[in-house]
# Entry
Amino acid sequence: MRKPKNCWIKDNDQLDVAMVMAGISTRRELAKKAGLGYSVLTHLGVLPVSTLTAAKISKAVNCTVDEMFEKTAKK
# Structure
């Protein structure tokens, strides 16, 4: 069973700032550090991600999930 995708990035610019603060220069580098496919990061803001994916991205940029993502209600 697939996990529900219910986390939306709050602000792509905020992610870019967090990446710089974490010493990450590209989204491809972020994908590698987070253990995700690059396509997941290219769709941020367009498609929701799972809570696990949001946690991996947040951990890679030294932030909390609540700082970077907002959760939507389950349908």
Notes: The chain has a mean pLDDT of 91. Residues 12-21 form the longest helix (10 residues). The radius of gyration is 11 Å.
